[in-house]
Amino acid sequence: MAKKTSKKKADTKPAAKKPAAKKKEQESAAAPAAGDANDHYNHGLRLMGSIERPLRSGQLSPADRKVADDAEKSLNTALEIAPNHGRAMIMLGMLYRFTGRFKEAVPHLESAMDLPRDGDDWTKAVDTLAGVHMQTKNHRKAVALLEDAIKDHPADEYLVHKLAACHYELKKPKDAIRVLEDGLRASPANALLTQALLEIQQATGQAQQIPRPALPPDQAALMKKAEALGQEMQRKIEAIMNGAGSAQEKADGIAKAQEEFQTAVTKLYGGA
Known about the structure:
Elements: H1 19-29, H2 37-50, H3 52-57, H4 62-81, H5 86-98, H6 102-112, H7 120-135, H8 139-152, H9 157-169, H10 173-186, H11 191-204, H12 217-242, H13 247-268
Helix pairs in contact: 1-4, 2-4, 2-5, 4-5, 5-6, 5-7, 6-7, 7-8, 7-9, 8-9, 9-10, 9-11, 10-11, 11-12, 12-13
């Protein structure tokens, strides 16, 4: 007698979602119901933070885009409740910048310029707006914005670095070097500015052609040592780039070289 065969029912359960995607959906769904502007701002901020890396790199997955859309809604709601919410303006401007919506970013960031000039929020607004101008090839407008900002914030490495980059893009390497040297007088142990100065000098061959303003002997000696450290870091990076290894291994090696440089410069100038 033939054996009865039973057909196994097909599994109709949906595939389990990956933890990261599930977490993002939960965060998006947790939008505040109350009419408090800060609640909506903080919710939008958390959502942006949850996708910070892909947002900054412009590599948003479909799940990331849903989170970005929800962050935009929360930040817009915050501004509907409190039109002068400066931080919501900045974060919405940043969100638009990172998603390539530059025209929408500008008015929010320009509105945030009404914040107190001595605060971190104001410099963040300037930095982001300058970044928008640079990405849209409006370097002269960025220069005007940054030069004005640096009057009050001469040691802000990001503003100084962006201003130097704008001058370089405008084929004004002497101005770029001047800006970086001024920034290093205000912040002598700054690794970002030291590296940028060395790169521009090496690229243009102007290290010896452009006289530097006189520095106190002790500071000049420290600057010379910092330059030597920067050159050593550059050699390490070139060796890593020309050597064997995967892209990730090279990226890790470069990050380590830069970290070692920062530690050495900080120690040189008496930092912790």
